[in-house]
């Protein structure tokens, strides 16, 4: 897993971000540290089905992107 997939990653631009835990600058594609916790994203949800390279559906009803954050989704299931 990469920093980009961690719930503590806060993007500042396309390539880098800040760790919300320790406030250090980190690169999005670097390998995650020992404090990694998987972010709540559509690609990790049981309701998500990939339909194309960068597109999928949620509950077979709605278009969704795999990398979309789902922190406010009431239907998210691990």
What does this structure look like?
The chain is mostly beta strands and 78 residues long. Helix content is 0%, strand content 28%. The protein has no helices and 6 strands. The protein has a 3-stranded antiparallel sheet, with no helix packed on it. It has a 3-stranded antiparallel sheet with strand order 4-5-6, with no helix packed on it.
Write the SSE topology.
Layout: E1 9-11, E2 16-19, E3 25-27, E4 48-52, E5 55-58, E6 62-64
Antiparallel strand pairs: 1-2, 2-3, 4-5, 5-6
Descriptive key words:
single chain; 78 residues; mainly beta; Ubiquitin Ligase Nedd4, Chain: W; 6 strands; elongated
Instruction: Provide a count of the helices.
Output: 0
CATH architecture of the largest domain: Single Sheet
CATH class group of the largest domain: Mainly Beta
Question: How far apart, in Å, are the first and last alpha carbons?
Answer: 17 Å
- Extended strand count: 6
Radius of gyration: 13 Å
* Low-pLDDT segments, ≥5 res: none
Class by SSE composition: mainly beta
**Strand percentage:** 25-35%
Q: Which overall shape is indicated by the principal axes computed on the Cα atoms?
A: elongated
Q: Report the average pLDDT across residues.
A: 95
């Amino acid at each position: 897993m990469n920093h980009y997939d961690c719930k503590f990653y806060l993007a500042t631009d396309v390539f880098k971000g800040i760790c919300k835990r320790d406030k250090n600058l980190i690169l999005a594609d670097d390998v995650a540290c020992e404090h990694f916790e998987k972010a709540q994203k559509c690609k990790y949800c049981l309701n998500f089905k990939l339909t194309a390279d960068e597109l999928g559906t949620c509950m077979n009803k709605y278009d969704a992107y795999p990398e979309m954050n789902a922190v406010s989704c009431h239907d998210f299931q691990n």
